[in-house]
Structures are given as C-alpha cells and as structure tokens.
Design brief:
The chain is an alpha/beta fold. It is built from 14 helices and 17 strands. Helix 1 packs across helix 14 and helix 2 runs antiparallel to helix 3.
Length: 337
C-alpha cells in the first residue's frame, strides 16, 4: 500500500476523506477551487449563504476592506457582491468593486444586505449598522461566524473522549483561547496544562490572561526535534514563526525531554510550520501513550501527507479525522485518536 492510500485508509469518516482529497489536490495544483469546496461544506458557510438568500436583497455589501474582506470575495465568488463599505477606507476600488465610506454607502444602495467581514469589532459594527437604519434581517455577521469557528477549533470533534487525568499540551498558546477552550471542554477536570509560546509579546499577554488558571505551566520556548537556539520572526500576532532570517533568537526543545515525567494525554499543535519537528521531538510520548492529537496541517504544502505519515510511523494505531475552521485556506486540523 502506498503512503497516500495508507493515510486515506486511516480517515474514519466521509467528511475527513473529502477534506483530505481537496487539500491534497490544492497542495499539488494550487487550484483554489479545492479550498472553496472545503469551505462550502462547512455549516458556517451554508448558514452564511442561507442568510444572504433569505435577506432577498440584490445588493450585497462587504463591510470591511481588510484581510477578511479580500478572502470573503475569493471564497464566495457565487455571491453577487455589489461593493465594499468601511469606516476608514484606504482606496476607492478594491478587487474591481467600489469602496464606500460608511457614511456614504447608504445613499448609493437601497435596502442592501451587509456581510460584516471582520473579526475585529464585529459586534460594534453590527450595532452601528442598526443605528444607521439597517434592519436585523439584512445584517449578516460573518465576523461572528468566524470567531465561532475559531472557538470550536481543536475540541468540537465528537470522538474526543475526556478523562479527569488529562495532561494537555498547548503548542502555540498565542492568545490563550485554546487553554480557555480546553478548560471548558474538560469541565475544569484535568491534571495539568503545559503551554508553549515563542513570541515574547504573546507570552506576556498569555501570562496575564491565564494567571488564574490552575495547574498551568506556561513556557517561553518552542517545541522542536532537539534542544537548540534558533532564529525567530516575532510579530506579536498569529504569524510569528521560526525563520532563518528572523531578528531574534529563541530556545527550543523536545517535548519528550520537557514532559518526560508526565503521561501526556492530549497534544494540540499550531506552530506556523514547525509541526513536523515538534512531532519528532515528541515521538517517545506519542509511541508510548498515544495521546489525542489536534495538529494544524496547512502551514506547508507537504503537511497534508507528511504529518499523518510521520504519526503513523511513530504509532501505527492512530486513526484520523480532518476538520476545517475557516472561510479560507487556513485552519485545517488533523485529529489523530
């Protein structure tokens, strides 16, 4: 059996197999239609399209000209977008569509439907639109949907079993939400949380946000396949990463060494392309305890085949699930159980 057939045989449901085929083709061809297929099959995308259809408006406006304003247009080309609106637009045309300042766009469109395409201040924008006279049934809060997707990430799979002795490893703490979501998922019944964050700014913020969490160890080091000092590009945001051209140096080490005396039961990894090395550095734990794993599988084009292959080489007993938590090509998670 070839590598891809072996991985495919370990995928336990149809949704996982469909996501795998599309992500594999996307990695091989770069055809974004494959990502659109994955996105279209998510409940959130179906809900968004349904709300647009129910609104009945022939004029659909994207509120937000930033990151998500671009991706929404790319991922939902079938929606008849009429233009953009923004409180502080930086251009008059974007992606071939007119861009209006928020105070002006209502004079251009009659009874438009508005899709809020930002995760920042989406609640405030929602109430701003209500105050401007837009009815509730014409406001579609895609920003809220995206936040809900992020919150569900790593813990929504119904096959994840929990016990009161969980030792949870959070590789890539970022904003602390994964720790909070783990605590909620576990019903506050767990043994220990080991959390790792390389970015100094994120590390400090997590320390403050999570200071009330019991049995938490937060480390300003990265997980890797050996103890080392590496170059790091820190942005204080989700795209901080190990990078040979990085401006700072950081310590990395093997989870096998750091958690040598713990019976680790659950490992989450979202570490911007360092997942392969981190798995290698946890190979003894993975082989011995077969912890539940939730691993980001999209940072590198080869992740879709290399990461499941590596896990099966370390522990052939694993079975796989795939889920997708975004309206774009990021946030695809491999669950190994």
């Amino acid at each position: 059996m070839c590598m891809l057939e072996e991985i495919y045989s370990k995928l336990m449901d149809q949704k996982s197999r469909a996501i795998y085929k599309s992500r594999l083709l996307y990695s091989l061809t770069g055809d974004y239609d494959e990502i659109r297929r994955i996105v279209a099959d998510t409940d959130s995308a179906k809900a968004l399209r349904n709300k647009v259809n129910i609104s009945g408006s022939k004029q659909v406006i994207l509120w937000g000209t930033g990151f998500w304003g671009n991706w929404m247009l790319k991922s939902f080309p079938d929606i008849n977008w009429s233009g953009y609106a923004d409180n502080a637009p930086r251009c008059s045309v974007m992606n071939g569509l007119p861009v209006y300042k928020s105070v002006d766009f209502l004079s251009e469109y009659e009874n438009p439907s508005i899709v809020i395409a930002t995760t920042f201040f989406h609640n405030e924008i929602y109430h701003q639109l209500l105050a401007a006279g837009i009815s509730k049934d014409r406001i579609i809060d895609a920003g809220g949907m995206m936040c809900d997707l992020f919150d569900a990430q790593y813990f929504d799979l119904p096959y994840l079993n929990h016990d009161d002795e969980e030792v949870f490893v959070d590789a890539g703490c970022f904003d602390g939400m994964t720790v909070r979501n783990f605590i909620r998922w576990s019903g506050r019944n767990y043994k220990e949380i080991l959390s790792f964050e390389l970015d100094a700014k994120c590390y400090r913020e997590c320390g403050e946000k999570l200071k009330d969490v019991k049995n938490l160890t937060l480390e300003n080091i990265g997980l890797w396949n050996k103890e080392d000092v590496l170059c790091f590009h820190g942005t204080g945001a989700s795209d901080s990463r190990i990078d040979a051209g990085g401006e700072t140096q950081i310590k990395v080490g093997r989870l096998d060494d750091i958690a040598y005396d713990r019976r680790v039961s659950f490992i989450k990894m979202d570490i911007e392309g360092a997942e392969k090395e981190a798995i290698l550095g946890a190979s003894n734990i993975i082989a011995r305890y077969q912890p539940k794993m939730a691993v980001s599988i999209y940072h590198k084009r080869e992740d879709i085949w290399e990461l499941p292959k590596l896990l099966l080489e370390i522990n052939p007993e694993y079975k796989f699930y795939l889920r997708h938590y975004s309206f774009r090509d990021a946030e695809t998670v491999l669950y190994a159980l």
